[in-house]
Amino acid sequence: MPASQGWIVPDWPVAANVRAFATTRAGGASRGPYTGLNLATRVGDDPRAVARNRDVLRRYLPADPIWLEQVHGTDVVEAERAASSTRADGVVARTRHHVCAVLTADCLPVLMAGRTGGVVAVAHAGWRGLANGIIEATLARMGVSGAEVVAWLGPGISQAAYEVGRDVYESFVSRDPEVRGAFRPGAPGKYQADLYALARCRLGAVGVTAVHGGGFCTYGDADRFYSYRRDGPTGRMATVIWMD
User: Fold this and answer.
1) Which of 62, 88, 139, 146 is the most exposed place for a label (fewest CB within 10 A)?
2) Residue 236 and residue 243: Cα distance in Å, rounded?
3) 3-state per-residue secondary structure call for 143-179
4) How far apart are CA 10 and CA 224, in angstroms?
5) What is the arithmetic mean of pLDDT over 214-229?
6) Is the pLDDT of residue 85 over 90?
7) CB contact at 8 A, 27 and 36
């Protein structure tokens, strides 16, 4: 089971056929700045180590995941039609055994599942994606109302560790003044941004009120998580979801 590997299994009220988990650094063949279970092929790690790491992950999945080429955008694809390396930051599945996946190392992985177990999705939600509508685009591609969706927020950087400039602050507040509370003033011209609060705001704006998870900090927990902001060159964790 994934939990036995030290990975994170969401505690959320979804249909019995929905399966999901988030990996950590635990295990794996990577070394140096990627030490652990790095699952990304585009970060400078030894391709042979990444292949071995993906083999470890594959033991816990019904099929190979759809590995997206993530670009901090708002494109969302359907797992049944997408090929690995498709440029997108969200993926949706409506049929059994199609594994949706995103890779992160500070950005939020956001899982979403229809309450009846008929559709699942995952979005890669950094500040750009959240500001530009990755949550909204993913829900639209799912084709259900927000009230019919349960969401889970996986490992991301915490507010205490996430300093941003005024440009990031303005990109959110100019669209929705209500999100000011997700920013705490820091050094002159800087803010501490709460990605979890921003994600909850965006989910709430489209009617998703059943939101679980959160409370992680990739930056502060180096034993469990990769963090780009902490380390620069580093690995990536995967968050996956599918239907049995």
Assistant:
1) 62
2) 23
3) CCCHHHEEEEECCCCCHHHCEEEHHHHHHHHCCCHHH
4) 16
5) 98
6) no
7) yes
Q: Which domains are assigned to the chain?
A: 2-158+208-243 (3.60.140.10)
Helix axes 195-205, 134-142, angle to 10 degrees: 40
Residue-level length of the chain: 244
pLDDT tier at 10, thresholds 50, 70, 90? very high
pLDDT at residue number 237: 98
Sheet bearing 108-114, strands edge to edge: 76-78, 90-93, 120-125, 108-114, 149-153, 210-213
Tokens of 241: 């979801």
Distance (Å, whole) CA 16 – CA 117:
8
